[in-house]
Write a structure and sequence with these properties.
Layout lengths: L4 H6 L15 H13 L5 H10 L1 H4 L12 H10 L2 H15 L7 E8 L12 E7 L4 E8 L5 H11 L6 E4 L6 H9 L3 E6 L5 H15 L7 E10 L2 E10 L16 E11 L2 E11 L10 H22 L13 H18 L9 H10 L1 H9 L2
Parallel strand pairs: 1-4, 4-5
Antiparallel strand pairs: 1-2, 2-3, 5-9, 6-7, 7-8, 8-9
């Protein structure tokens, strides 16, 4: 473990404990918890039980000079561990794993940890950043309420390397100051547009409705259509994007605003059809010729971060966690994200093996667990 990216990233997490009272090194506590989380442990008691059962295996990587930490030690450490320091270490680690190439798509979206609420405190809300190219969660930032996403998003973007990337955010993040932050960090944006932007949303909606009604005569709109079929379900996605925005009188208030877009999703299941229409603003220009490939990819990729949120709930049981005290909920969420990233990057099992099955396999197969650790 001494030469891994994992240790180099996480060994500098701030340790709140008094040095003379420390029995277990912080990096050992973080490492053993991450591995136990990979191997199906969801509570501090389960973490202790797994590490105790695999103590000889763990000694290949960490000393455990004073034995296995108790579940109370794990609980106390992660409740009081500085979540900002832990997050910076997480981002340092994911930046080494991810490919920081030009044009990569980074989706920013919020998720509430529903089990973290108490009688006198609301559940914590975490803003997450996910990179499509590597299928990795890059970082998180805790807020006390969903409405605080507006202030949390710029803070999270400040922590990330986003130069030459395309940032996608849902409608709550469609704010002028967030746009300025993205452009200031030399990135592009594709942001969802809804009723929170009032007349702007209505004007974009009217533009595309008029364009479609006239069969795009005199409307320079780039288009792309995709069709997906499976399990009795047909999904048609129609993407529209245009640079024709000179008519919008407040366009200069949105930094580098270059185009507007529309996506219409038509889903047919057992003969029943549903239609959903969404609108977007972007700093990306439409191509002079051909379909709006980049815009379509950015919109489609944003759904990937929502998939990660589903995995955290269903596979890692995040919403079932009753960890509530201090920084416990935010730090446990981070541990689950580290474990999820590792299992997503794992290349040993078949590509379509579910993360749920990988967690089970890691809990019973030491050879598999050893190979997973070797890829850290």
């Amino acid at each position: 473990m001494d030469k891994t990216m994992f240790k180099s990233a996480f060994e500098n997490v701030s340790d709140f404990r008094q040095e003379w009272k420390v029995k277990h090194k912080l990096i050992e506590i973080i490492f053993t918890t991450v591995i136990a989380t990979i191997a199906n442990a969801n509570t501090w008691i389960e973490v202790e039980s797994f590490v105790e059962a695999k103590k000889e295996w763990f000694k290949k990587y960490v000393d455990l000079e004073n034995g296995v930490p108790s579940h109370d030690t794990y609980k106390r450490v992660f409740e009081n561990l500085d979540s900002d320091s832990f997050n910076r270490a997480f981002i340092s680690w994911t930046s080494k794993l991810s490919n920081e190439s030009a044009g990569r798509i980074i989706a920013v979206d919020g998720k509430t940890s529903r089990g973290s609420h108490t009688e006198d405190r609301k559940a914590i809300h975490l803003v997450n950043a996910w990179v499509e190219e590597n299928d990795l969660l890059l970082g998180q930032l805790k807020t006390e309420e969903k409405s605080n996403e507006i202030t949390a998003i710029p803070e999270l973007l400040d922590l990330l390397f986003i130069k030459d990337s395309i940032i996608t955010i849902d409608a709550m993040g469609t704010q002028k100051k967030i746009v300025e932050k993205i452009i200031g960090k030399e990135a592009d944006y594709v942001l969802s547009l809804k009723g929170n932007q009032g007349n702007f949303n209505e004007e974009v909606k009217s533009y595309f409705e008029d364009a479609i009604e006239s069969n795009f005569r005199d409307y320079p709109v780039s288009r792309k259509t995709t069709l997906e079929k499976g399990h009795g379900r047909i999904e048609k996605r129609e993407y529209y994007q245009t640079n024709d925005i000179e008519w919008y009188v407040e366009k200069d208030k949105w930094k580098n605003l270059s185009s507007i877009g529309m996506v219409r999703r038509t889903v047919t299941t057992k003969g029943k059809e549903s239609v959903e229409v969404s609108y977007f603003i972007s700093s990306l220009k439409t191509p002079e010729e051909g379909p709006c490939e980049v815009f379509a990819k950015a919109v489609r990729s944003h759904w990937g971060v929502e998939s990660c949120h589903w995995i955290l709930d269903v596979v890692f049981r995040e919403d079932h966690s009753r960890v509530r005290m201090n920084n416990g909920a935010a730090n446990q969420s981070m541990l689950k994200k580290i474990a999820m990233n590792i299992l997503k990057q794992e290349t040993i099992t078949k590509k379509k093996t579910s993360l749920k099955l990988k967690r089970y396999k890691a809990s019973i197969d030491e050879s598999f667990l050893t190979k997973v650790v070797s890829e850290l």
